[in-house]
Amino acid sequence: METLLSYEVWLRLSAFLGLLALFLSWEGLAPKRKRERTRRERWVSNSGIIIIDSIALRLVFPTAAIGAALWAAEAQFGLFYLIPNLPVWLHVIAAILVLDFAIWLQHLTFHHVPWLWRLHRMHHSDVDVDVTTAVRFHPLEMLLSMLIKMAVVVLFGAPAVAVLLFEVLLNGTSMFNHSNIRLPQKVDKVLRWFVVTPDMHRVHHSWHKEETNSNFGFNLPWWDKLFNTYRGDPKDGHAGMVLGLHEFRESTRNRLHALLLQPFTSANARSAVTDKNNTNSKDKS
Ligand SMILES: [Zn+2]
Ligand SMILES: [Zn+2]
Question: Which of 7, 160, 178, 279 could crosslink 283 through cysteines, CB 3.0-4.6 Å?
Fold first, then answer.
């Protein structure tokens, strides 16, 4: 376990770069949908966002969630440490499940609370969804997410190795389910029992608000099925559905500086739930 932690940076970086290469190639060879915009137009902004996010996280939380887990282990703090003789493997699996549920609940909350939706909607304003959308989150949302994750880690006493495995896993599954890739329907159907697939997560990027407010999972699909927020397919079909948000479609709205200012730009803070503009013309007619 300690060996795994000592290779933390290499594990994260090699998983990220390896999967990026895989999904970029897959998107090139077997894309699911036609792009609305050029890759260059979106990739410049989305790449800028990941660089800013990485720097912001490193500056504000240098030891991040792993540091919180190491502190909890040292102090034997957290609910899991109250259970006597908890086997390490069970501690790790339970912590991964708790963290995944916490991320799901956080995501749902970010859709329902207006000022949190202001931060999160930048992820939804991408008019195409591909592997680069997986890293398109506002730096303020990233910092807040890290704070919440650290609190969950300390509250439950999640072991550092579970945090590392969870973060690498979540990064990988998120890249997978944002990819604009074609998967045979039968394969998708089987995979959906264990992991959120691209077809499942694409529904969440629909501009129909009832579809935006479904499929909150990034990793395990079980929470959506359990809490009745699961939606199998988009009503306009995967090829015909419109991605993004009604009020942020222009190219100028998707430039890097505009993305960073997006939480502060619109007149009213509305949640995805109450956002009456988050519907398309077909809804209005
Ligand atoms: Zn969302
Ligand atoms: Zn997404």
Answer: 279
Q: What is the pTM of this model?
A: 0.90
Report the distance separating Cα 177 and Cα 163, nearest Å: 21
pLDDT tens column, 169-184: 999 999 999 999 999 9
- The domain tally of the chain equals 1
Question: In this structure, what is the dihedral angle of CA atoms 35, 36, 41, 47, given to the nearest 10 degrees?
Answer: -60
For 236-264, write each residue's pLDDT tens digit: 999 999 999 988 888 888 899 999 999 99
Cα 56–Cα 75–Cα 90 angle in degrees, nearest 5: 85
CB 179 within 8 A of CB 27: yes
Instruction: Count CA within 13 A, CB hemisphere, residue 61.
Output: 20
Distance 218 CA to ligand 2 centre (A): 8
Question: Which positions ≥6 away from 122 have C-beta within 8 Å?
Answer: 136, 137, 138, 141, 259, 262, 263
Question: Any idea which ligand is nearest the CA of 174?
Answer: 2
CA of 127 to the centre of ligand 1 (A): 14
User: 82-121 burial by CB neighbour count: b if 16+ within 10 A, else e?
Assistant: eeeeeeeeebbebbbebbbbbbbebbbebbebeebbbbbb
Cα 18 to ligand 1 centre (Å)? 25
What distance in angstroms lies between residue 275's CA and the mean position of ligand 1's atoms? Answer: 14
| Other beta carbons less than 10 A from residue 3's beta carbon | 7
Q: Which domain holds residue 201?
A: 2-284
In contact, 47 and 132? CB cutoff 8 Å: yes
Among all ligands shown, which has an atom nearest to the Cα of 133? Answer: 2
pLDDT at residue 24, as a whole number: 97
User: How is residue 232 written in tokens?
Assistant: 């199998």
